[in-house]
Amino acid sequence: MKPISKRMEPIPASGIRKFFDLILSTPDVISLGVGEPDFVTPPHISDAGIKAIEEGYTSYTSNWGLIELRELISEALKHEYGVDYDPHGEILVTSGVSEALDILMRVLLDPGDEVIVIEPTYVSYKPCIRFAYGEPVVVPTESSNEFKPTVEDIEVKITDKTKALVLGYPNNPTGAIMAKKELEAIANLVNEYDLYVISDEIYSKLTYNGKHTCFSSLNGMQERTILLNGFSKSHAMTGWRIGYACGNREIIEAMMKVHQYTMLCAPVQSQLAACEALRNGEESCKKMVDEYNRRRRLMVAGLEEAGLECFNPRGAFYTFPSIKKSGLSSTVFAQRLFDEKKVAVVPGNIFGECGEGFVRCAYAVSPEDIVEAMNRIKEFMEELGV
Ligand SMILES: Cc1ncc(COP(=O)(O)O)c(C=O)c1O
Fold first, then answer.
1. Pairing of strands 162-167, 196-200
2. Between the N and C ends of the chain, which has fewer C-beta atoms within 10 Å?
3. Contact 129, 11 (CB under 8 A)
4. pLDDT score, position 66
5. Domain limits of the chain?
6. Which atom of ligand 1 has the smallest separation from the CA of 171?
7. Ligand 1 site, residue 201, Cβ cutoff 6 A
8. DSSP 3-state assignment of 173?
């Protein structure tokens, strides 16, 4: 048999999925592993999807997505962040941010183009860049700087092949957020070097201290930014597969072409459910965010009690504690914690080399499970003798 594409060789299977499969096949595990809300979609949103099916909405929509949804997205972005995207040509509805990321890399990159990725990073950015024949260039960050890159960190990685910078704040896996001032400094750099910014703002609603800054709202950034967002996290809709990309006409139209030939459109029921989320979902979203905030405090306190240093996360639903004190590598720590205490966490090195010495714990689980998991981690640390 002829070999499959060489492009696949450097791309590992997602380490998170590996854990997920392990968890599914082991009883009584408390999983802090997988980053998805434990809430079900709020009933009024699900009902809108069910009603859509019952009323016969079972066909394709416009490749761009329903105009009703694009208008609602446009209004929401204007209302929340003061950015103005034309629903006719500057907004594309996709099957989650995942699809948007993939097709965006394909339209943006030529072979060898470099894209800067801040590590620890969400696991999909680098593979999507490689699938599009681009080269990810890594900027590591440190817990001592709250896992935030400085302008200098980024600038030293810029070459004449650099085309774009990926920003994902609030951040998966660290929970870091960026202050407006810090983003403005990056915006100046982006202008100076003529770069695009891929701003994955899927956790924008999940901030606990201070308001989220939309990167395209910064001076001069709307033309350069491709804003990605969706409903998976904010409205507990991971299984509905619905998201969107906003940007300048040239890019969004090119993305629409790829989307048109590969996906055709996002599921119509999900689009109608997303309309309901935008019309009436503010309160249910806020309730979930308040609950995540409570769980965040519970987990950070529990980790400290267990003797693990943890940078205080300000967004998304993850903590990223240091496990260096244990003397174990991230992988061994996660494996042993799973084997010995039936608690699943994700080894930090999955998110990049500088994630070694850390693990990711999602607090999108019940408070009871958080308390029990923290007790087990404490026991584990005591048994290690640290
Ligand atoms: C940072 C980030 N971006 C994108 C996604 C994927 O989102 P979607 O469900 O919209 O495809 C995730 C999912 O975990 C994520 O954490």
1. parallel
2. N
3. no
4. 98
5. 6-41+283-384, 43-280
6. 1
7. no
8. coil
Give the tens place of pLDDT for each residue, 65-110. 999 999 999 999 999 999 999 999 999 999 999 999 999 999 999 9
246 lines ligand 1 (CB under 6 A): no
pLDDT digits (tens, 9 = 90+) for 251-283: 999 999 999 999 999 999 999 999 999 999 999
The topology under which CATH files domain 6-41+283-384 is: Aspartate Aminotransferase, domain 1 (3.90.1150)
Q: Which residues pair with 277 in a beta bridge?
A: none
pLDDT in tens, 286-304: 999 999 999 999 999 999 9
CA of 198 to the centre of ligand 1 (A): 13
SS3 track for 149-167: CCHHHHHCCCCCCEEEEEE
Q: Is 168 in the pocket of ligand 1 (CB under 6 A)?
A: yes
Task: Indicate whether residue 204 lines ligand 1 (CB < 6 A).
Answer: no
Residue closest by Cα to atom 13 of ligand 1: 35
* In the chain, alpha helices (H): 15-24, 43-54, 67-81, 96-108, 125-131, 151-155, 180-192, 249-262, 268-280, 282-305, 330-341, 367-384
Ligand 1 pocket residue status of 202, Cβ below 6 Å? yes
Cβ neighbour number for residue 1 with a 10 Å cutoff: 3
Q: Is the pLDDT of residue 212 over 80?
A: yes
Residues found in the chain: 386
In CATH, the number for domain 43-280 is 3.40.640.10
Ligand 1 centroid to Cα of residue 153, in Å, is: 25
Q: How far is the CA of 98 from the centre of ligand 1 (A)?
A: 6
- The reported pLDDT for the residue numbered 16 is 67
Global model pTM greater than 0.85: yes
